[in-house]
Amino acid sequence: MNQIKALFVVGCSLLGMLASCPIQAQDQQEPGRGEIRDTEFIIRKDRVLSLPRQSRVFEKSPSLPPVAATTSFSYQVKDFFVPLEPVVLETQAYQKPFPRPAYGQTPGNAKLGFGNYSSPLIHLDYHHLPDSEKTYGLHLKHQGFYTGPVDGSNSAEDHTEVGLSGSLFRDFLELYGNLDFERDMYHFYGYTPDPEISVPQDSIRQVFNTLKTRLGIKRIDRSEPFDYGASLSLRLFNDRYAARESEALVKVRALFRASENLKGGIDSRLAFTSPSDQNYEAINRNYFKLHPYAQYTKDGLHVEVGANVIHENDIVPNKLKEFYVFPSAFLSYHVVPQIGAYARYEGDVKRNTYYDFVMENPFLGPSDQLRNTVQNYLVDAGISGKINGETNYEVGLRYGDYTNMHFYGNNMADSTRFQLIYDNNTRVMEYHATLDYKFEQFYQLQASAQYFQYTLDEINSAWHRPEWEIHINNTFTPDPKWTIHANMHALGGIQAINLASDSQRKLSPILDLHLSVDYAFTEKFSAFLQGNNLLNQSYERFNYYPVRSIQVIGGIGFKF
Length: 560
Prior knowledge:
It is found in: Cell outer membrane. By secondary structure, the protein is mostly beta strands. It has helices at residues 2-27, 354-360; strands spanning 108-115, 119-127, 134-145, 157-169, 173-187, 205-219, 226-238, 244-257, 262-276, 285-298, 301-312, 323-336, 339-350, 373-387, 391-403, 405-410, 418-423, 426-439, 443-455, 468-476, 482-492, 495-498, 503-506, 510-520, 525-532, 540-542, 545-546, 551-559.
């Protein structure tokens, strides 16, 4: 305590000394800067500082008595469950309605025309459009050529088609069907007219009647992982003589997409055919084919491998077996869309019916025997691609080995008719090329060329098969009102044989120019003009059967 007092006295002395310094400085001269002056400090211990007494409070504030609760509160929480089922939301993709353009809403169109060779044309197509759950259609066509190139009406022909079709659409399926009738009339006019000898027209007339029906089912969305389809077809065929043929054909296909790049499937075909003709009674020709396959596609690479499993019961002299298993493979690769390469290998059994033969050669007479063609193997390789994004091309080479390939020769009993000729083993080398060019909406070109070399076993030549063939199709659309088609079909190197006289001849090359012009006066009314064989050639596709020379048909067309 004494130390504190002493320090306090010293502090006060210092303050007093500092206070007196300014007064002395007024009387004395201010010393120079940095000079050390003499100073005296006096410390006095007898001085005592005293402070007044201050009262202090040492008692604490009394605490308040605790408040006692008079009521106890208790809470009970109860769960209330409402028996409501969860809300189910049915969602579906919104389909924006795209109205059909006015020109696409006409359900029907018709053509009426007439030309030289007494050739009327009637064509009607109607397709019901408004109903989204079902659709149906009608097809009618009749075209006649009631005079011909040889002996007037004795070389006439006409063709009539009547067809009904319909479809029912369900959630995922389409049920479809059709019923068709075809009538084709020809004459066996392959003779040399004699003014002194009249050939009765009825004695050489040939008429084919075909009734066909089909019922089928298929998926509407073909992009689903699993796709399928099936159909049942029935056909009844007869001609004006002794040929008859009935057929039942079942087709079933199934496809499974394992991923975007990998898919596989099975195609099957089962046919029961019963033909009869002048030289044989009704027989049963059964045919079954199963084609399993797998495909892989990625980055310009396409690979497909599979097999053709076939059973057929034809009885032929050179037949070795009824059950066949042939491998099939296809490979293509495009480094860039402009160029790529492909290769194919496949064995098969080509099914042939009497109906197929007469659609190819309508002057076929009684047949001795119907045979399927066994394709022992076929190798096809080439290149394909695009040029400037407008031209597609393909150039390749095919080589095949066949058993029972069919050819035609003039009948041994009647040279105005033809009969089938089979070769035991035929090897065919084929050079082929195709071209497709499109320039905006103005012009489109489609062209193809083929050259064949035959190596035969039992016959001398590939009778009535061309050595080369060229197709050129041009389509011009200068404006929406005009549509012009200018096409050319050329083939040559055809060797013919007359089995009755055992004579052979080479037919002249065929060059057929076709021109078709359509002009639309309005959206529903138009006119057309068609010309065939504009070079006025009297060529023969089949021996002794010259075709009509220049033929022109004109008429009108309208939509409703």
